[in-house]
Amino acid sequence: MSFFLPQVVTQENAMQIQQEGLSNLAILKNIDCSSLKEFDSTVLTVLLSWQKMLQAEGQSISVEHAPEKLKVLAGVYGVSALLGL
Predict the structure, then answer these.
(1) Which among 1, 2, 9 is positioned nearest to 67, based on CA atoms?
(2) Cβ atoms of 6 and 17 closer than 8 Å
(3) What is the pLDDT of residue 1?
(4) d(CA 80, CA 17)
């Protein structure tokens, strides 16, 4: 199973999405970004917070179907390797 990010991840809904992910830790290991269309660097904050939570448990996230813009943002912020991008 995967946790599906919504179409929009911005400052307005980032906290809600982060909490939804934390409520679904069992499926949070696989994050599907195929629906993600509108986002800013806030999405990196959400992904990194999940990664940190899972790393504390000896696990990590796998980001699937990442849009090119997300890969570029992760590269600019220097977190590509942390997120497996």
Answers:
(1) 9
(2) yes
(3) 86
(4) 21
Domain span at residue 19?
3-83
How many structural domains is the chain composed of? 1
> Between the CA of residue 61 and those of 3, 38, 49, 78, what are the distances in Å?
10, 21, 11, 17
The CATH number linked to 11 is 3.30.750.24
Q: How far is CA 46 from CA 2, 38, 66, 80, in A?
A: 16, 14, 14, 14
**Mean pLDDT in the chain?**
94
Q: Which residue has the tokens 């806030």?
A: 42
Stated pTM of the model: 0.92
Q: What is the pLDDT of residues 36-54, one digit of tens each?
A: 999 999 999 999 999 999 9
Return the amino acid letter for 25: L
